[in-house]
Amino acid sequence: MLKESSKLSKKDIFIYFLMAVTGILITVTGIYYKQSFLRILPLYNSLIIAMLQSRVNRYSNLFGSINSLLYAAVYFYYGLLASAFQAILFSFPMQLITFIRWNKNKWEKSTILRKLSWKHRIILSVCYAAALFIMCKVLPLFGAKNVFLDSATNILGVFILFMTMFAFVEYTFCMIVNGIIGIILYIPMLNETPDILPFLIFSVYSFICIVFAYFEAQRLYKKQNETQISV
Q1: Per DSSP, what are the bridge partners of residue 111?
Q2: 149 and 184 in contact (C-beta within 8 Å)?
Q3: Buried-exposed string 111-132: b where 16+ CB fall within 10 A, e elsewhere
Q4: Residues contacting residue 225 through CB under 8 Å, at least 6 positions apart
Q5: How far apart are CA 43 and CA 31, in angstroms?
Q6: pTM to 2 decimals?
Q7: Rounded distance, CA 33 to CA 201, Å?
Q8: Per-residue confidence of the chain (231 residues) as pLDDT tens digits?
Q9: DSSP-derived secondary structure for the chain
Q10: Distance (Å, rounded) from C-alpha 112 to C-alpha 20?
Q11: Are 185 and 150 in contact, with CB atoms under 8 Å apart?
C-alpha cells in the first residue's frame, strides 16, 4: 500500500512538467528583456506555491504569505498600487493566519472545507461592487495605471483571502475568475512594458493550477461530507 501511494498520478506528472516548462520560459524571457532577477524571484517561488495550491495543500498559504512581500516590491515598480498595498496589508498577514487556521483543522494535507450560503454570496457580491466603485474613484488620484482591472483583481483577491481563511470551498472558483482577470490585465501592458512577459507566462501556469485546485477542492468537500465531518 505504501509503495502504491507513493506513485505519481498523471495530474502530478503534468503539473511538474508544466512547472519545469514555465520556469524555463520565465528564465529565457527574463534574460531576453534584461529583467532584474530580484523582480522575477517571486515567480520562481510561486511555481511551487501554485503546485501546492493545485492540491489544496495548507502549506501553500505559509509559503504564499512570505512570497507576497516580494511581489509587493514588484508591483510598486510597475505602478500597480492596488496590487502592492493588497500584497502587504492583506495577502501577507492573512495567508499566514490562514495557514494557522488550516493547520488547526487538518484534513489529510489540506483542511476541513465548507460552503457559503446563498445569502452570504449575495452580500459578498454587493460589497465587491461597492469596493470596486470606490477604488476606481480613488486610485486615479494617486496616478495608478490600469485602474479598473487592477482594482477588480485585487479586491477579488482580498475576498479570496477571507474565503480561504475560513476554508469556504468557493474560494477556488473565485480564484479562476481572478486568474482570468489577471491575464487580461497583463496582456495590454506588454506594449508599454514588454519585460512583464515573465509574469504573463506565470499567470497562465497559475491559472491551470487554479483549475486543478477547483476540482480537488470539490473532491475533498464531497469526501468530507461522505465521512460526515462536521464543518
Answers
A1: 106
A2: yes
A3: bbbbebeeeeeeebeeebeebb
A4: none
A5: 14
A6: 0.84
A7: 14
A8: 334 345 778 888 999 999 999 999 999 999 998 888 877 888 999 999 999 999 999 999 999 999 999 888 888 887 778 778 878 988 899 999 999 999 999 998 999 999 999 999 999 999 999 999 998 888 888 777 778 887 888 889 889 989 999 999 999 999 999 999 889 888 888 888 888 899 899 999 999 999 999 999 999 999 999 886 554
A9: -HHHHTSPPHHHHHHHHHHHHHHHHHHHHHHHTT--HHHHHHHHHHHHHHHHHHTT-THHHHHHHHHHHHHHHHHHHTT-HHHHHHIIIIIHHHHHHHHHHHHHTEETTEE--B---HHHHHHHHHHHHHHHHHHHHHGGGGT-SSHHHHHHHHHHHHHHHHHHHTTBTTHHHHHHHHHHHHHHHHHHHHHH-GGGHHHHHHHHHHHHHHHHHHHHHHHHHHHHHHTT---
A10: 31
A11: yes
Cell of 181: 482577470
Decide: 167 and 102 in contact? Cβ < 8 Å: yes
| Residue 64 grid cell | 504564499
Q: Which three cell numbers stand for residue 184?
A: 487580461
- Torsion region of 190: left, alpha or beta (phi above 0 gives left; psi -120 to 50 gives alpha): alpha
**Grid cell at residue 206:** 497559475
Q: Quickly tell me which residue has 489544496 as its cell.
A: 56
Query: What b/e string do you get for 160-193 counting C-beta neighbours within 10 Å, with b at 16 or more?
Result: bbebbbebbbbbbbbbeebbebbeebbeebeeee
User: Which amino acid, residue 37?
Assistant: F
What is the residue type of 188?
A: P
